[in-house]
Structures are given as C-alpha cells and as structure tokens.
Task: inverse folding
C-alpha cells in the first residue's frame, strides 16, 4: 500500500512519494524540435480542429501562447502534450500570428 496523502505535503505521488507539485514522475520531457512550427487542421467527430506543433517553450510560456492564440482566433481550445489545439479552421490566422511573433512557420497536411 502506498501513501497518497500527507498532512505535511497534501496529495502525494504514489511512485516517488513527493508532493504532486514537486513530482517529476508523470511529467514528460518536451519533444525535441527542429525550430519549425507546424500548423495543420484535423477533423474530429465531424468538427474541425487547428493544431500547432513544434513549439519548444517552457510550460508557462506555452500556456500563455495558447491563451493568446485562442483569443486571436476568438475560439476555444486546449494544450495537450505540447500541441495547441484550437477549435475551428484557423490555420491562416494562426500562421500569421506566429509569424508576427518571429516563429518559423510551415503549413502541415493538405
């Protein structure tokens, strides 16, 4: 049986027994990028989603950029495994916004 809560630390990781805020077990390392941001679109369950991949930024900066891109598109979205997902077909707008910020951008897919 493993410890999952401590009065000193709060919720703890069952693997390393560190507080969840300090746990490194479940965190994946960011993928190594080639310096090119790829923007594409996918259809999921009949709905279109724009994807931004290849950004090698710290977690906080990536979350802030995702928030900024969602606001620029006027749409919702999320950040999953270093991929920014924006609801709707906003590929061109995302590419323009990223280019203005100085990123090297390519359109991926068809």
Result:
């Amino acid at each position: 049986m493993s410890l999952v809560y401590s009065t000193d630390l709060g919720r703890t990781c069952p693997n390393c027994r560190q507080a969840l805020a300090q746990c490194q077990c479940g965190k994946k390392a960011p993928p190594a990028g080639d310096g090119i941001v790829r923007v594409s679109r996918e259809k999921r369950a009949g709905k279109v989603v724009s994807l931004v991949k290849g950004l090698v930024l710290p977690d906080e900066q990536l979350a802030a950029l995702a928030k900024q891109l969602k606001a620029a598109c006027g749409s919702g979205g999320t950040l999953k495994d270093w991929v920014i997902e924006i609801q709707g077909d906003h590929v061109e707008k995302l590419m323009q916004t990223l280019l203005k910020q100085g990123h090297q951008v390519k359109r991926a897919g068809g």
User: Anything to note?
Assistant: The first helix runs from residue 59 to 73. The CA atoms of residues 28 and 66 lie 19 Å apart. DSSP finds two helices and seven strands in the chain.
